[in-house]
Amino acid sequence: MSSGSFGENSNASTEVGIEIPPLHDSQQGYHKLASMMGLFPDVAIFKRFSTLNVKNILYLQAELAHLENDLDLAAQEDALSGDVFRIDFYRSWCTLSNAESLPNGNGQQWKIFLKIREVLQQYSE
Q1: Are 3 and 64 found together in one domain?
Q2: How many CB atoms lie within 10 A of CB 25?
Q3: Which of 45, 53, 68, 125 is deepest in the core (most CB within 10 A)?
Q4: How far apart are CA 12 and CA 68, in angstroms?
Q5: Per-residue pLDDT tens for 46-92?
């Protein structure tokens, strides 16, 4: 760039002959920074928040382990309930997903699984 600072509003050209459009005085802060980074993506620097991302993954992992344990306990309770429908949950997704509408239905296992699905999606991303 020419001998101006980042904040100057001038028609400068780079050493390779690329014309840099002037930044308007109304562009300030993030808007001005984003405009410059848009023009020169190679100089754009972003913090990765690596420690926070790792911590988030660890928390999601712990939450999934807890939910998995809850699901196992709910499945065991359903299997030992003596109720013909609840006993069928382990082999029938349809029965399990409609548990609350069944006589003596206990939808706890399905509710836990839906929560697992939500957290698992976040974890997998």
Answers
A1: no
A2: 9
A3: 68
A4: 60
A5: 999 999 999 999 999 999 999 999 999 999 999 999 999 999 999 99
